[in-house]
TrEMBL record:
Catalysed reactions listed for this entry: ATP + protein L-histidine = ADP + protein N-phospho-L-histidine
A GO MF term: phosphorelay sensor kinase activity
Protein name per UniProt: C4-dicarboxylate transport sensor protein
Species assigned in the record: Hoeflea prorocentri
Histidine kinase domain span: 400-613
Amino acid sequence: MSEAHLVKLRGERRRPFVYIGVFLFAIAICVLVFTPVLERYFLLQTGRGQAVTLRLAVDSLRLTLDRYSRIPALIAARPAIAAFLQDPQSATLKADTEKLLSETATALGAKGVYLEDANGQILASSSSRFDDPLGAVADRFYRPYFDRVVAGGIGQYFALATTSGESGYFYATPVRSKGRIKGIVAVRFSVNQFEANLRGGASEIIVRDSNDIVFISSRDDWNLRSFTALDEDAQNVIAAARQYPLELLRDLPNRRTELERNIELFEINDGRGATGFVTSTSLIARAGWRVTILSPASEARALARLTAIGIFLFALLIAAITLLIWQRQARMRERFDEQREAKRSLEIRVEQRTQELNESNRQLVEEIEERKATEKQLRQTQTELIQAGKLAALGQMSAAISHEFNQPLAATKAYAENAVAFLDRNRDDDARSNVSRIVSMVDRMSSIAKHLRNFARRPQEKTKPVSVSSVLSSAIELMQPQLTKNGAELLFSKPPDDPWVIGGDIRLQQVVINLMRNALDAMTETAAPKIYLNVETEDETVRIVVIDDGTGLPDEVEKQVFDPFFSTKDPGQGMGLGLSISYNIIKDFGGRLSAENASGHGAKFTIELLRANSSDMKDAAE
Ligand code: ADP
């Protein structure tokens, strides 16, 4: 793969990381920006979710308040009350009234029932012993409910007994006689039970009065805490009304943010750090109270954070999947590129190879052409060589023939001239002698001519079974004078059987004589010349071996002995045709003539012939 391609690939691999980094950064920014929005959304959801609980709490409080609202009027309607108010000094009536009030309080579960005169002085109470702390001090209190009762309405009022710290709710109604207010019946109930009902829920519930002071709370530590810092006037009013013991009132530092109508976010700092609450508030207009339900904002905030994290994780997941898909595609692209590259390089290689093949093919064709040309040239050279060889042979032959004939011709000429001279001088005998020499010269020349004829025209005589013994006997007989002349000894071991061979008796005899003659020629310098003539027989062949004790065959001679016109003898002694003719004769018989050196002796010539079988003999007989 090329360097540029690799760089491009690396760049492509890095690109998705950059995109995904940017994408995640953008998501992170979005999450940071939108987390407050999400938080507000979840806070509002929490606030809206409080609606049912808030309504239940408000209803329950209203019910509790309403349940006792008619009670004072019922008590006031009792005749005993009216009678006592007629005669407040009567101890009996007072005792009866107090008994009535006590029984009523017990029956209602009220904390106290009081009868006051039109000036607010307690005349009788459910607790005659005045051990009811509120009752004990009630007569000394100026209470707003009294004013309201005197003004003609049913008074309802919340107050906290200063001595016990127990909160109580007062209901009061006037006792009228002839249109005039004679006294007031007041009933006090505890709200502790209601408070107890508020506890244990997931949310806090508080009830604040018009001064923003908490007087009912699911949390004890928030009781008598003011959500709004009390100014001096308000403190004076509270002090004058003895509504709450001022020394117990404390501010509750807080910060409020309105999320929507009636739903606020409270950051309350109760000394242990700020805590956030989602609040929903409902007003009980009749009493001027506000019931507020507070749920920890931490849950909504955690939910917002979780959602933000979730969105981010989701984005991360999408980024991871995108990255995976991207990488997968990049890998596939890469693989595709590699395959394309491999294919391309393969094509290039194939093209190169094809070119190489074409080139070598071209070279081969050239070589073939060259070889053909060389072969043609060789053939021509061979033809030329053959021609040259023929010419050389012809030259050799001409030289040999002219040499052979020149000498007897020159002698003949000399003898003829001498004969003429002798005849002129009438020396007839001398002339005759010369003429007879001429005749012998002519004989010699005709003998040479015969040799040449034999060589040139191979007799086409048919072969036939020939008796080796008879051929050898004739040859020995013919050679005997020369053997004797040369003082040579012939050692001939006659074959035990009489082998017959395929050949021609005269020609075979001629070959054997030629070999024996050559043997004698080679032994002119040998002290005791010997010729060994042996016959060796095998199943199919018969060998006639001629060995001498002569000079033997030097290497260069051995190579050429069968060549025509090859001779080492002096001119006039040999034409170099004997062995050549003999070789061809034996070849015509289907046999073989070979020459070698016999160890311890001179040359060894072997005539190898095919043994004549019975069918050959039969054919010959016919
Ligand atoms: P020529 O006898 O006329 O020379 P041949 O063909 O018969 O021709 O012989 C060829 C040559 O072979 C001879 O000149 C001689 O050198 C060699 N030769 C043949 N026979 C023998 C032998 N028995 N020993 C040594 N040399 C031989």
